[in-house]
UniProtKB/TrEMBL annotation:
Family: Belongs to the class-III pyridoxal-phosphate-dependent aminotransferase family.
Organism of origin: Xanthocytophaga agilis
Protein name, as recorded: Aspartate aminotransferase family protein
Leader sequence segment: none
Keywords, sorted A to Z: Aminotransferase, Pyridoxal phosphate, Transferase
Length: 379
């Protein structure tokens, strides 16, 4: 059987990884500034993470959500403490799309409505509701688009005011748009969204799948402002590579048996991974590190020739380049052995481990400045 060929692949096979580095099958070492797409939060194969997962695997790896699983409660308590959302409730799933799918459902169960406000350039995942709220017709199958979702311009307060009324079930917005190009949601906009949701009884969902879990230099990126969403979705960095997603739910939502459910969500191994991530984030002050090292990177990249704009917060960084980003990315990967991501044709996207050091940033800066200088003079 062949694989269903949906991914364009680089001809590189990582076989080993540690911290911010991966090694391929030929022994070549790479600096990983992509983190497997924002997933590696505490660094590859962190010893505490490996130990916690190994211990759990030797005890019990899985049982269904029909029995007591205290490790779920431990994860919820630790997440509540570290994120500052101790009074919220946690529903565990396996991915970002599922987190958003369940957020949209819960919002609709809550107020009985179906109109969703989403934003231009948004990305919320590929399941039915999540992809319907994603502004990319190319990834929506004919069954996905729905009249329930209305797209308005991002960060546009006037457009939001014009569309809000008693029919709106929920606003779903990324704290920082990732796929859309690393566009930071403004505090003013989020505050207005909060105010309008309160006025009309709508639900504010902040998708923190990519910008969450410490990446922005706060636990959730909206915590740079004084705004509390009703529902917060998370995944990616939550398990440092083990599939896990979470939906943080304001206490005003009442749980009814059977209203949400999943087979794999909250399994023992996923929870062990999630707990190990939170332990390391706390012990190693990784949220603070993301802020400090991210600022260092952004400050030093701004003003380099060939750089048009630098956007982002903490270690979620978009560098808009004059040259097509694919050229820059390939040179970084094949000539300097540095993994990066992209968002659109001209934005280099950096989503490294939150344990990245300034020394590792310097390695990137040296390589990147050589490339953009050379591209700029047409060499
Ligand atoms: C903001 C955001 N939401 C949702 C998702 C979907 O997450 P997953 O691929 O885990 O379903 C992504 C994935 O890139 C994302 O960036």
């Amino acid at each position: 059987m062949d694989l269903f060929n949906v991914y364009p692949l680089y001809d590189i096979e990582p076989v080993k990884a540690q911290g911010s580095y991966v090694w391929d099958a030929t022994g070549q070492k790479y600096l990983d500034l992509y983190g497997g797409h924002a997933v590696i939060s505490i660094g590859h194969t962190h010893p505490h993470y490996v130990q916690k997962l190994t211990e759990q695997l030797n005890k019990i790896g899985f049982y269904s959500n029909s029995v007591q699983i205290p490790i779920q409660t431990e994860l919820a308590e630790k997440l509540g403490k570290l994120s500052g959302y101790e009074d919220y409730h946690l529903f565990l799933i396996n991915s970002g799309a599922e987190a958003n799918e369940n957020a949209l459902k819960l919002a609709s169960f809550y107020n009985g409505r179906k109109k969703i406000i989403a934003f231009k350039k948004s990305f919320h995942g590929r399941t039915a509701g999540a992809v319907a709220a994603t502004d990319n017709p190319a990834i929506a199958a004919p069954i996905n688009p729905t009249d329930h979702v209305h797209f308005i311009p991002f960060n546009d307060i006037e457009a939001l005011e014009n569309v809000m009324n008693e029919e709106v079930c929920a606003i779903i917005v990324e704290g920082i748009q990732g796929v859309g190009g690393i566009n930071v949601t403004s505090g003013e906009f989020l505050q207005k969204a909060r105010e309008l949701c309160d006025k009309f009884g709508s639900v504010l969902i902040v998708d923190s799948v990519q910008c969450g879990y410490g990446r922005s230099g706060k636990f959730f990126s909206h915590q740079h402002y004084d705004v509390q969403p009703d529902l917060i979705t998370t995944a990616k960095g939550m398990g440092n590579g083990f599939p896990i997603g979470g939906l943080l739910i304001h206490p005003k939502f009442k749980a009814i048996h059977g209203m949400l459910g999943t087979t794999f969500g909250g399994n023992h191994l996923a929870c062990a991974a999630g707990i190990a991530v939170l332990d390391v984030m706390k012990q190693e002050n990784l949220v603070e590190n993301a802020a400090v090292v991210g600022n260092y990177l952004m400050d030093n990249v701004k003003g380099l020739p060939g750089v048009k704009e630098v956007r982002g917060r903490g270690l979620m960084i978009g560098i808009e380049t004059e040259e097509p980003v694919e050229v820059v990315r390939k040179k970084l990967l094949f000539e300097h052995h540095i993994f990066t991501g992209y968002a659109g044709k001209h934005t280099l996207r950096l989503l490294p481990s939150l344990a990245l050091t300034k020394t590792e940033v310097d390695i990137f800066l040296e390589a990147f400045s050589k490339i953009v200088k050379a591209e700029n003079v047409g060499v």
